[in-house]
Design goal:
The structure is a homotetramer.
Chain A: H1 13-21, H2 33-36, H3 38-46, E1 51-55, H4 58-69, E2 74-79, H5 83-86, H6 91-96, E3 100-104, H7 113-120, E4 131-138, H8 149-161, E5 165-170, H9 173-180, E6 195-198, E7 209-213, H10 219-228, H11 237-247, H12 251-270, E8 282-286, H13 289-297, E9 303-304, E10 309-313, H14 320-331
Parallel strand pairs in A: 2-3, 2-4, 4-5, 5-6
Antiparallel strand pairs in A: 1-7, 6-7, 8-10, 9-10
Helix pairs in contact in A: 1-11, 4-10, 9-12, 12-14
């Protein structure tokens, strides 16, 4: 069994079925009725008017969001471990035309207002230094922690005070919301988030993520940037369909809960081995090389995470039953 | 019946079936066996060693190719009507970091060595003027004409003489090859083409195009550019599967022939109304506004193309039987 | 005698003297009193509040202006012959991060509202095509014609109607104003110009041009772009001093008039040989190769301008007496 | 007396005189004989064939060098305190089209092979992470330390081993060489440096720095980048003249020694207050706010450098006699 990443999981059946339903000639690009329904569908979901654009990858969503929030000569505060900083090959720099990531620190890849201030307060307000224009946080974080609505709101208040945009990388937004049990608006626009990369690929989708603008005026220019980046699919209905299927009856949330449940099972088995609290669908374990090898010998695959640690990510389709053998193996280490 | 564009057609059943076959957890990005087989599959197809990368759109393929062939301070010669010049919202400029398109002219969107010389010969070889670094041609052209192997080879020879890269935008490469009846290598690498955007979306695919490098050393840097542009799908196997399905038993070529056959049927009906010879799957007609309205009244939809002209594009799944009513209506105008 | 270009002339004595006067330790960058006085000095000159930034070259001034007026995904309408299009090695594309120059035509490198409409009206207002965001005109033009206040105002009205920014490349602004005999405000902000590249290097300066913003809110971001482009000199006072010396007692205008007078002298001698009316300090002549050779044999140097034409540019320090031999030689051809 | 920065000092008389000598009409851009002589002059100075381009600022020199050494999708290792990282408003990112600065640590802003390895060794060699392509070091460093030839050679060996380019920011190269007493080639090309930003503005110049390529093949593309950045002055001879005047009779070196001597005088007076060894012309002192105020009350101006520290920079024209009162005041604190 593979626990490398939820981004390699299968596509869930409802999504697959939805692809079939749109498989006839229709209007190209985002002119089809499914694509056109997305603004409304996400406005309903979030309880406020939003603009919602499909894009194929989380990197694209993040980068377009940052380009909307930060000029080429500006900076974006993010955590040192942020995906945008370490795993996107400079995509934010490409899309923003060279804006600078200003990195801060915090336990479990989580930023706080203090951590952000530690980054931006020393910046002299002169033309020699890159000035901050936006903040980007990841929810759930790269280490599987969820920002609560209050935590986001504290960052949102700082962003507002300093006139900074606020972006949330929600590659695992479903897992975060499933954990928090809050309304998706509570942890986004009500807390000051301007733009959300809402991940669906890790949550049962095939090739569609959503870029949701709570500051709706940011969307129009982004439509040009999306096209200009080669991201405007001519058969866009196949992206819209994936997302709409995941919205239906809160499938996105159920998938998120399912993955979280698997991680929780492992967390209980892991006990003191946990490097971080398990709040979403990622489990970081302290394991020796020998222990890691013994788990692999049992058929469980995962990434080492530095020396003496391992990362296990649970996907939407890995049921508790399926995971139990791994939990037992961890407990038995 | 709609004849707006082949880019809005349905996905062909073999492609759909292929998506199902890869629908289980596998290695992410392009680490799956299907993605890994693409270099080999396209090397076989072209009869030479190539590097073949999936990308989701033709705009992305074109832009990555140009970025591989032209530095930011250089220029790319293309036809004034080229898709890269008029329909990609500046994507080539984005990916190349501001290279300049140097536009030439020619009947039916076709460039010739003379037309290219007319663009580049007046450029002073000094640092004040943008120097040409590449040529981009579209086959079949935006007006549905096919460059023959000899015509490409003449441009290829000029490119070599002037040390320019040569890119082919093959959004309708299948239609061109189906028309030419040649080996796909004859009209590409054997004629001096360095990089080909090989279109599959307009030919029965869903969301996968191929960027094929005949100068294989260009591929490595492009892998970074692809990631950096947010184009590296985590579930890349669903793109590879589409393309492999279209390669199997030359489905891509059969689909191309089918669309061409429909266009040929219309061409015969259109007679003197043809604006350009019909060699691929696009038909440009002289029609008055009243005539266009009468066709639309019969249920045929298409784009006006300037004043007094109409464009009709035939898709892979529009059979001759299905098209005959339109042919009859055109003949009866 | 050399008539290649006014950009190669000597620095005028008042400018040189001014350099000496600032030659002591002072505040770096643009914090010195001379640099700080520029906003006021140019506001006085133009009769309205402006922001005025020194930059070292006209290419830098033009490119920064365009970056302030046009986003990366937008377009700038300019004449096919515009310096920004043919003589700046893609600098506008570099500074704007890939915006597209949308070229129009017109006699003597002059755009008109109709010529501009011919460029922008066919652009579909969709995300596939680069949308115009600004217009750039050159005054005096690359062929030495001056736009009158009315001509600029007509373009300014169109710009306003279409919500486009308006930039004026004034590499030879002094020559234009000297010819027009108008207030410098008449042909700029009163006519709708948002940003002016005000040339001083061709007019007796050494290394300082001014970027003047009539839409003052554009200046702040430009200060960052200027630094980011490596254009913020640490010893900025030597640039400010040059410009202030040229403003004093309208030296800039006197220098412009002097160069124009020389050109007028040649124009009278040239008669029917003139390719364009001579309104500034450039003279374009029809001359055969043999005639050009005979002039050169007499010691007059200049550029051929295509086949059968020659360009002669008069500098601020070429007196009528000094030019008379050339005038005589032309008359005697 | 002001000790803010050597970048605000006066221009030295020899440089001023040289400006006068080139003040007649000549060939534009870098076509004049002075500009043309620079390759030879710097080849002689360094004892190897180089290409030497004038640029107006150190930021421009640094950014062009990095653009020559690193592709847009790559990274440049530098010290966290490097001028390119904290004082150029993102210029390296602008010129490289978004390359990433990969920051390392080290006492006194100095990198070592170990510090560089600590940055690059953890980078996974896959397309998700920005790969290092170059190293940039500053000599003398931002804290006034000089890299010795051996120290540079150790970094140069690592660069070669890892196939990384090596750039030296020599804004205070004169001060470093004056301190080291070595041949300028010993600390550059003989130690593996590919490109040097050779500072003259802080050393008595007005507006000219040199970009020196020891890997001469990097120069040709840089000529285009220089023009494209608006850095190609039409009256380039006034830049060349400054530099040539400073090369004559090793004036650059004498100016560097003079500034270093002043700093050494302060260093002896400062004793235990020194934050860093004083090797060039910068002195960092531990001083309380009250002590700083008392120095300022005596007429000495300088920057605070964080809490409890002050930075004093000595210029080429501040003689030991002129500095002695400050030295005495420091000793008397």
């Amino acid at each position: 069994m593979r626990f490398f990443s939820d981004n390699a999981a299968a596509v869930c059946p409802e999504v697959f079925a939805a692809l079939g339903k749109v498989n006839q000639l229709d209007t190209a690009y985002d002119g089809d009725k499914w694509s056109k329904s997305l603004d409304g569908a996400f406005s309903d979901l979030f309880g406020t008017e939003v603009r919602a654009l499909w894009v194929p990858t989380g990197t694209a969503a993040n980068s377009l969001a940052l380009a909307a929030l930060c000029p080429p000569y500006g900076g974006v505060v993010c955590h040192r471990d942020a995906h945008i900083n370490v795993d996107e090959c400079g995509a934010p720099e490409f899309y923003t035309h060279g804006a600078k990531l200003l990195v801060g620190d915090g336990e479990g890849s989580k930023l706080t207002p203090d951590a952000i201030r530690a980054v931006i307060d020393p910046i002299r307000p002169d033309v020699h230094q890159v000035q901050p224009h936006a903040i980007s946080i990841t929810n759930a974080t790269e280490y599987g922690l969820a920002y609560t609505p209050d935590e986001v709101a504290a960052i949102g208040a700082l962003a507002k005070e300093r006139k900074l945009g606020l972006h949330m990388d929600g590659a695992r937004f479903a897992n975060a919301v499933a954990h928090l049990g809050c309304h998706p608006g509570d942890v986004t626009w009500r807390a000051g988030v301007d733009a959300l990369s809402f991940g669906f690929v890790k949550n049962g989708g095939m090739s569609a993520e959503m870029l949701v603008f709570f500051r709706t005026e940011l969307a129009d220019a982004t439509l040009y940037r999306r096209k200009r980046a080669g991201l405007l699919f001519s058969k866009g209905r196949y992206l819209a369909a994936q997302v709409l299927a995941l919205l239906e009856d809160d499938l996105w949330l159920r998938n998120g809960r399912a993955a979280n449940a698997g991680a929780a099972l492992l967390a209980r088995a892991a006990g003191d081995r946990l490097v971080h609290p398990v709040q979403a669908n990622e489990v970081f374990l302290k394991v020796s090389a020998a222990e890691a090898a013994s788990l692999r010998a049992l058929g469980f695959d995962f990434y080492d995470w530095g020396v003496g640690e391992a990362r296990l990510v649970i996907s939407w389709d890995q049921s508790e039953d399926a995971i139990r053998p791994l939990a037992d193996a961890i407990a038995a280490l």
